[in-house]
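Bench notes, afternoon.
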Amino acid sequence: MMGLGMNTVPQINLAGPVDRWVVRAVGGECREQARNVYLASFFLPARKRVAVQAVGAFVHMLEEALDVEGRPGMGEGACASGSDLEGRVGLVSERLESMYVGEICRPSVGGEASQAVMHVLAGAIGRYQIPREWFLDLVEGLKMRATALRFATWGALERYLRRRGGSIGLILSAILGLTRSDGQERAVELGMAVELTRILRDLKRDGERNRIFLPLEDLIRFRYGEKELRGGVVNERFVELMRFEMERARELYRSGAAGICWVGGDGSRLAAATMAVLYGGLLKGMERRGYDVFGGEVKLNAGQRMRRMVDAWRLARRGAGEEGVGEEVRGVGRENGKLCTPGLAGRRLMGIIVPVE
């Protein structure tokens, strides 16, 4: 792997006027496109914070670059032509290459936010030694999403989840810092859990584009048809299907959360736990709606995010092998009928979500 030389790593002077704008621009992009990542990043030291926010924003940039539905001339359910998609993948690969060799132009105040994101990420790649292969696997996962209208089996979907979500988990783990190499597989599982959660949340949007990412073998097993899914039919068979897929997601959350104790203790552990419980909280939101993901966007409001932060605080404090690790992703933030005390770090994020007196 070709790494960035020390003399080519873009440096960020957090006190400089240009870099203050860069930090604001990156934070603004992350807040707009990856809010859970943005909220979790506030537990991190300044350099890690802006690096994590850059990852959140950059992933969205990649999604847009390889998005099929958003392209002019692409009809409902259309797959990208081989030449068109390969051309866009080639451009993305060239941009990644320029980031790895330090050939990213320094942004100027008031310039494109995307330039600020790439500038910060190029620096993070060198500083945290993020392998190029993880980004290439992410691109491959997004390419799979652009070309596949269906996944026939769980194995096929699992490969996609590993590339799309698992790669992001690995990239973030390099920035947050791991004390054990075993933690990388746990980071992959958390990333897979998040992506599976997103698939369940977005069934309506994907169905409108003739995209069904739940394994077809599962639809057959629960006797729930593609036509019913695309029509937004919620019946007993759909509820059982959703419970089955959500348990898969929760198992990935539980297994992945077991590695959070191996994340660095400079706020990184709490940041990782926050991402896990906020995304995991979407599963709880689907349950509260009777599994009806067709009636509007499933998301957590400010009060629900605040309550989930108690679970994040508890998860970040657990040790390796401790009984109950990972249960916080399905918890409600209560112990013996009373809210647990989140401490100063927990109150810090609560103050971002809703004012804390």
